[in-house]
Amino acid sequence: MSKYSLLKNKMPSAIKKAWIISDLLTFFILIIIVSLARFFTNIFITSSWINKSAIIFFIVAVLATIASLLLIPYRYYFHRYKINQTEVAIQTGFFFRKTTYIPLIRIQHIETSQGPILRFVHLTELSIHTAANVHLLSGLDIKTAANLRTQILDLVEVIREDV
Amino acid sequence: MKMYNYKRLHPFVILKRSTSWVFSFSLLIAFDVFRNIESKSSWFYSIAILGSLFFLAFIFNLYRWFTFKYAITSTNLSIKSGIFFKREKTIPFSRIQSIHQKTWFLFRPFNLVSITIETASSSSKIEDIVLEVVTRSTYNLLENLRLGKENTIDSGKTQIYMPQYSVSLNNIIIFSLIDLDVISVILGLITIVYPFSHFAYKYLNSFLSKLFTSGILILTFVLITVVTLTILGTIIKNIFKYYKFTVYRELNHIIIKRGFFTRTTLSIPIERIQAIRINSSLLQMLLNIKTVELLLASGTTSEAKEDASDTNFFLFPIINGHLLTKKLMQILPEFTNTKIIQKKPHTVSCPPHYFLSSRFRFLNLLLLVPLFFWSGNWYILFSVIILFFTLLSFINSIWQTKSQAVTYYEKELLMIRTVLFFTRTEYLCPLNKIQTISISTTPFLYYQKLGHISFVFKTGESASTIKLKYLSWKTCETIRFHCAPRIKNYTLIKKEVQP
């Protein structure tokens, strides 16, 4: 059996940092929400199940965060993209592997955006819009994103077709 | 800048809009009248309120009528509206996805129609262009210009095309029965109600229980009448909706006419059809009937255009399986293999993987585990229900894996067949309408050289995905290779962006 064929380009390694930060942030937000909910339900209802379920939820959240943090190297390894003359390909997933091929002719427009986390690690997000849906290529460094954008736009200009 | 010859809508639009606006309040006012019906003053007040509302609406719509202008040139339609915020819209004919023409039965003697023009705007913010009340000659002018015909001004003599497909009254009734899945509804009701009444008769014999049983009987009676009434209602609705449903081909357009009270004419350019969907459910397969729908890119779910808000554009609401290819050949030769007969269709084999595709259905059986700890009397019923649904989903997945197929016609067309909820669905789609293709797998499946492939289309405001599961990896790759658009003579320009 041949190895699962991976695409050429990896994301910049700074994306790992962004993933770690976002994992931790979601974890803390979850904890805050759960503790707030526990606090307010304790005011109105008295039941031992509130504390128990909060503990269960806490354990689940910790485990999920740890698992997601441990999987970051694999996620990084399988998170790839490619652009050639006809299409953009985006590959994601360690367990559920998925490769999406977007023909350049079908691209309607391209957006770049940068959230606070991505700005912290000096990366940017490229969203490729087709007529039907949006494909995100998250975590390119700014220069590559601009480069890619101009490349794709050049191609799209040459070969344009209507919906 | 070219000078446009701007025109206003027909003045009837003021009346129509104001009455329909006031009519939406009529229920409230009627309620107010019935609250104290005997006092004369309340009547007077209600009528005064209604009158002033109408007056307000009239003034507002007069303003709207006055400021709304449209012009038709040889290549586009442009619309001006507003005094304070002036807006101008220009729609090139080449960007039009479909045109709906509606004739309200009250306006028929005056030869007035309403035209809705749909473009493929992806966001719902961009509303469709509605010319609400215009004369029929405007529509004819628009159509003639759009179709690139010679006679533009004189529209009195329009060509009469023979309808290539029409639906009889009988077929409409069958269609609405099948569409409702009436039989399954009735069977379900009977299976629910019958054991209950039986149970009630047999075991509860005291006077109270008699009351109870008669209550159940009355309830069943009411239920059955409700069901029959809804069936009748849908049949009547469908008769009015699909009254004299005819389809014909005119140059590069498909024209669909239907409706009793409001006669709708829908014209769709062929190259705007995203895909054709052919459905046949179990019942339909038994009767050898198929339902054919057009999938279009124009969004039709917003509230502003109530009548056009069908998400289904039926091409043939009901058609005999034998006739289908013949009719498609007549009306849409682009979507059959007649035009491309010389090129051999390339059928990709999808070997059925019975166990793989159905293995997760058996997880439903885990629901049986808590039943062992159940102390109630209903565990037999629950377990039977669980087993029944597991069996159903198992059969469905077996059927799905057995019947999925892909046929590829050289550079033109892709035919995908799959099964969803006991309905066999065939998609005929031009290759250039596939937006994206994705291939997915898991390490376990990849070890067995298997993968899923999914195609994404634009239908309406959102995307619709067709997924074929458990194909061999090689098949996925070949399908993707065949469906990818070919672009010749283009080399990627390497540009260095200055930081």
UniProtKB/TrEMBL annotation, chain A:
InterPro entries: YdbS-like_PH (IPR005182). The chain crosses the membrane at residues 20-41, 53-72. Signal peptide: none annotated. Keywords: Membrane, Transmembrane, Transmembrane helix. Residues 76-152 form the YdbS-like PH domain. The keyword Transmembrane helix applies. It comes from Liquorilactobacillus cacaonum DSM 21116. PANTHER family: UPF0699 TRANSMEMBRANE PROTEIN YDBS, UPF0699 TRANSMEMBRANE PROTEIN YDBT. This is YdbS-like PH domain-containing protein. Pfam families: bPH_2 (PF03703). The lineage of its organism: Bacteria, Bacillati, Bacillota, Bacilli, Lactobacillales.
